[in-house]
Specification:
heterodimer; A: mainly alpha; 9 helices; about 70% helix; B: mainly alpha; 6 helices; rod-shaped
Chain lengths: ~200, ~120
């Protein structure tokens, strides 16, 4: 089927297409979802290479489950976020067990000598956000990233994290407060205007 | 940090595009090709060879009709082969004493009075 003709199709429709033996569905789903879950995994793991492995693993599970996918029960993106969350949690636990959580795991800021100042400042801000996120408890980090960066609704987050709505609200609120506290000392360094 | 600063930071993070996902997408698509479900095509049903009798029965309207016709044919053959027997031969079988010349339909009672 033509790639353009599918661009308006829902994720679920594309998955059904793939399950029916049409590789075009997989191409579009990959283009739509792989960068999203890569970004999410990278924020949880703070490691690009590991995040790529997780994203590939999650997509592989999606291909495998495609023939048994029951339409209307879950959204493909929500299902993928859930798989990525679980895979990331497994890796984070393994890291803790092996005590590999070293400071140098934090993403390095590229040498920005040739970059304009605004871009450098933005990179600094994002690095600071990632560092602050990585300092949050895992569940709070997941909830904050899903809500405020990935843009999922609270019911979707509840499905992804397998918790109730109240727990989602509590986690996001506490996570946001903690982030504010962690970043409060860097406000001016990150280019935000002075308080007045 | 203010809420609005944090929201602005989240917005920047949302807008951040993951650089160079081409390699990842290629890996993912390779997996997709490997696991691409093969849909079974519509199975072609070869026409079953029918025997002569089955074809004939179908043409005539069923096995019952064929059985009836076969029975009638056998009866016809039997009637054709068996020689018709003259009625005199059958009568001779029952009345071998000779031709019937006198028949007493109402026996008289004279025989009862004969002494002896």
């Amino acid at each position: 089927m033509a790639f353009d003709a599918l661009s308006d199709a829902s994720d679920e429709a594309l998955l059904v297409l793939y399950a029916n033996g049409d590789a075009g569905g997989a191409r579009l789903l990959t283009a739509r979802l792989a960068p999203r879950i890569l970004g999410y995994a990278a924020r949880l793991l703070q490691d690009r290479a590991e995040a790529e492995d997780v994203a590939q693993d999650a997509m592989l599970r999606l291909w495998c489950i495609a023939p048994e996918w029951r339409q209307g029960e879950a959204k493909v993106a929500t299902w993928l976020y859930r798989v990525v969350t679980n895979l990331c949690n497994d890796r984070l636990r393994a890291r803790q067990r092996r005590k590999l959580m070293a400071l140098d795991d934090a993403p390095e800021i590229e040498d920005g000598a040739a970059k304009p100042e605004a871009l450098l400042m933005q990179a600094d801000r994002l690095a600071a956000l990632n560092a602050a996120l990585s300092a949050l408890p895992v569940r709070q980090r997941e909830a904050v990233v899903l809500r405020h960066i990935e843009g999922l609704s609270n019911p979707e987050i509840a499905t992804v994290m397998d918790i109730g709505l109240e727990a989602v609200e509590s986690l996001t609120a506490r996570g946001k407060r903690a982030l504010s506290a962690l970043l409060s000392g860097q406000r001016e360094d990150l280019g935000y205007e002075e308080e007045y | 940090m203010h809420d609005q600063d944090l929201e602005a930071l989240f917005a920047e993070a949302r807008a951040q595009v993951q650089p160079d996902t081409a390699q990842l997408q290629a890996r993912v698509l390779r997996d997709a090709d490997i696991h691409l479900p093969q849909m079974p095509g519509p199975a072609y049903r070869f026409p079953r060879k029918t025997g002569f009798l089955e074809g004939l029965a179908k043409a005539l309207g069923g096995r019952g009709v064929l059985a009836g016709l076969a029975g009638a044919a056998l009866a016809g053959v039997m009637v054709g082969f068996v020689q018709p027997t003259p009625i005199a031969t059958i009568a001779a079988t029952f009345f071998a004493d000779g031709p019937l010349e006198e028949l007493e339909l109402i026996p008289t009672i004279d025989a009862n009075f004969i002494e002896g």
